[in-house]
């Protein structure tokens, strides 16, 4: 998790110290009500109710309310927790947040304990020795090498369990991340419980286009960003005459989703929506990523983790890694981007057009590489949340 994903100095050290001190003392002298276990769940830096963490929070609320009180940690700058009426939602950085952290039996985070569960945790983690901390992950690891910041080191060391989607991920976290074997558990990803596997659409009519984030873009000026391969490639795809004609002739819809971490740049894409050619940018304040995965028939991406969901569902994928060399130099990948992709590997915008034309004109609705899914995903039974709960909580 890049420290640049949050504004520097957002959490005032003096306020945090005051809240932590008071919460620690109060937690020490008070007993939990009704004897139920307490679990804190968070993901996406508290900015979205999405992904593994959100799916797992819903599962605990719906299936284990008698044994566990599951709280969701959200960013107080957002309004989604109130709008969606998320049960037991607690603002990150509040006094209640710190108090619950010291009372909690379990925490489950998707990205980082620091940003998903309790701000500034690295400064006072030594005060909490009893809470079982589980990293439920975001997407299957493979296309992004882990970035370990200074503040991550004590957090990784203190984390009790790292959930894995498969034996493949287990081996990667053991050998590449150097996580001790006893901390690795294979229970599958909660997000895959949302839908049945192997569900290709009857026809390709709706195309989701989503690119992942790049930390080296975060501090660019408008001029620098609009001169980047990221921006130019997106515009190039949308303005390609062949792609536009294909969309129009076959009455297709191209739905573009900016990665949540790239939201700060969305104003630079204003004006690229093109109703004539069925091109629109999605607003995730009103349409979730889960909905987009379910209601789009194929994916056009670089290497976003959403591609694993499309593989799981056996839907076509076109990969277009427009800045592969730069990406490998600045971030790196565990998988080989030439041989390990589970979709069409386009090397240019014209190549994207050729693959898209093939998919549409030949009515290709499934993923030719679907047999690869079992290499990266161990479970296809929608019991991942159940397995995780049993393994961590013993329920």
Automatic annotation (TrEMBL):
Pfam families reported for this sequence: Glyphos_transf
Gene3D superfamilies per record: 3.40.50.12580
InterPro entries: Glycerophosphate_synth, TagF_C, Teichoic_Acid_Biosynth
Descriptive protein name: CDP-glycerol glycerophosphotransferase (TagB/SpsB family)
